């Protein structure tokens, strides 16, 4: 399809707002495929989550603080279901990534998230922790030489991108295989090690809303909330992967190719698309939302609940009561849990952990590279004639080399505990989700027309997500300022009222963000009501 010859969407309430940053070309919304044909983006997202919250943070939290915190896990998972599907809404409606949408709100936002994303994902803790697991599993190298496996992991990841002409397809297939292995392995382990009885404690913990132990480590807990899913910068990839997979209007965009493979022509990622609100297109939009929600729920949500809960039952049974383990979840598995399992079960446990950590590092490299390239290309590269595929290869190579440099520095600095990499990244992930939750619902209500806007249930869900991550982000910021920098005036407490004077200022900032988010998005919903004829034809369950 020749983008340039298509008619430009008029500047009316029936089409997305351009904000002076490129218009939208008109074409019909494509036909809706079966759910089985669009499985992919959520499998990659699940892979990104396996080695963080699902097998590390949450099993450690439950082992140390008990099932009373399980409520925060499942609430976090369902919250991320709404966040992730809202992140892909912009791609489905316009064919653009969420970063292009943020750029339409303000040009600084994409660069802010690029910086925050590097702080979160620039430390290869998953490859490092995977190296430690591999060393303990095989005995081929001393445990202190885990960094050698970490380096090999990064090399294997880079080489895997050369396996085919379309970059996205390679990652999708690899993650689907690892996802299936991890789910089957987790289920089998629960029965083999006899931890299934722990599920009897789950119902009470699932409804213990608001329970927070006085001594809970806020950084680890916020990391757990962020990683009750993929978390942070990785979540923002959902919209980019949805475009690459061809969700909605994303099917008309070019895909990133491997420039080292000379068997395919490069494709172009254009500005946005839009569709006329005809009866056919409105019905297709409703159907698209149905299948994409099913894809995300059945793959991402169900997969997370099965794997993470299974891992929690094992640590809850085998970690002694009262033992502190959230400081290093990798050591918890290697030094406390696995030695009690017996050789055959231990072998399977090692395998599941290594797959989880490898799949996460794989997805992290993919997410950081793809997001970063999208930001650079959308904001700067397209206007300057950059080849998006070559930019991708360059960014991939630089990021892999950076990760190898960090891991290799172990040989000089003798760092032996890679867990700190994960805690640092996880805390940033949680803090980052606060502003982009607010921006996403503001974008989707103020820039999209009535028939592609989120319904009120989703608007309220995103208000909740903004407040949820805002609350725990303020707790973390206050904890860092008071504990790490000695600024006790900024101390923040769970009950809010016992916070310091500076802590009250932080809470007022959170309140201001929440009120502004609710006002802007709520006002936009009310203003666009009944502005598109038959818009209700596009409304569906949780759409």
TrEMBL record:
Transmembrane segments: 38-61, 67-87, 108-126, 146-164, 176-196, 216-236, 297-320, 332-358, 391-413, 419-443, 455-476, 496-516
Assigned keywords, A-Z: Membrane, Transmembrane, Transmembrane helix
Keyword Cytoplasm: no
Species name: Halocatena marina
Highest taxon above the source species: Archaea
Name of the molecule in the record: Nramp family divalent metal transporter
